[in-house]
Amino acid sequence: MTKEQEDLLVEMLGYVYASVPWGKMKTSKNPYDIFNHRVRAASRRRTIYEMLSKLCNYFGLQQAPVEAIEIADKLRDIENEVLNKIYLEHIPISMKSILRGKQIKEERINKAKGLKNLFD
């Protein structure tokens, strides 16, 4: 897997992380641990689409982020390699994805604030 493909994988999972309603989660567990374990469990699916579906189901998401689907399309040709990489390196992949997910969420917040300021 190339660096560019790994970056796409991190980006895809980052979009999923950014879409999870973490404030509504009723658990005493660390959100990072929850995400990490569920990413690894989902990686045992047969295809990257099945993995995304399972991951979204774990977090109660009714749909995958559009951006994540677009990235999954780009990774389909190497999906077995992607799924194995997630399974074997789930901690670093998940943590990179969490960091990217937080950036995505912050970008969304800043964009919304910018739009709000236009109408004030």
What does this structure look like?
By secondary structure, the chain is mainly alpha-helical. It has one domain (3-119). Helix content is 75%, strand content 0%. The protein is built from six helices and no strands. The relative contact order is 0.21. The mean pLDDT is 93.
List the keywords.
120 residues, 75% helix
Q: Based on CA inertia axes, which overall geometry fits?
A: globular
Q: Which runs of at least 5 residues are low in confidence (pLDDT < 50)?
A: none
Number of strands: 0
The amount of beta strand, in percent, is under 5%
Mean pLDDT: 93
Order of helices and strands: HHHHHH
What order do the helices and strands come in, and which of them pair?
Layout: H1 3-19, H2 31-42, H3 48-58, H4 66-75, H5 79-88, H6 90-119
Helix pairs in contact: 1-4, 1-6, 2-3, 2-6, 5-6
Brief digest:
With 120 residues, the chain is mainly α.
